[in-house]
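During the reporting period the student researcher (J.K.) took over the structure-prediction task from the postdoctoral fellow and processed the backlog of single-chain submissions. One of the processed entries is reproduced below for the supervisory committee.
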Amino acid sequence: MPAYPDVDTIVAALKDAADAAIVPRFRSLQAGEIHEKGKDDPVTIADREAEILLTQSLAALLPGSVVVGEEAVSADEGILKRLDGDAPVWLVDPVDGTANFVAGKETFGVMTALVVSGVPVLSVIYAPISGWVVAAEKGAGAYADGERLPVNEDPASFESLRGAVMTHFMPETIAQQVASRAASLGERLRGLRACAFEYPAIATGDRDFALFSKTMPWDHAPGAVLLGETGGAMRYLDGTDYTPRSQRRGLLAARSPATWDAVAGGLFPEGDPY
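J.K. obtained the following structure tokens:
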């Protein structure tokens, strides 16, 4: 297995950035420190300053690596092309769950994933308020606060499953069809508005699945490593595996392949609607 930077060192980089730029502003943001990048897409001074710090610290951990950060891409979409290159890429979401952060809720996190040749191989999720850490490395397992997470192999039926069916960014016709079919689930849950919490909830069995419309790589690559090491499945709605090199619409993450099949069959019996 290739030698990647030590997880503890990565955690320290995320913690340092959070302590410097994020935590001091929690429940203390001023009006001029919050902006809207788009509809329902806030950004704060904490996002931007934390990303600058992480871009410097993570690149230094792996010589020759490059960084693709959410806020940098917001300013220059061409930065996404780094994922198509040969250099290892650090994907960075400096404040995942910015809307929760702005609202004073603790459900936000700092996330990074290391992508090599288009494949996510290592990820760290850090929750600054609780100090919770979830880390995973391809072929080496997944851990929550140092305890290894088990591999999920549970059988599943659509009517017994509970998970988030997020249709907010879907075309209206598709959203209506999905909402109607989701009524037959065991329980349709509200999204947590933070992949930093949504993916660990699936990996630990607190939730069975999550359906996403938008698929920006910094949101989902960390979860791809985590679910890959806990027996989960993460595929587009046509059944092909997730890749951070694609931002195609429609992504279903589930705690096991059987769960993925059950949810996909129940919500999209006619296949990929996109």
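The committee noted the following: The first strand starts at residue 34 and ends at 38.
J.K. will present the remaining backlog at the next meeting.
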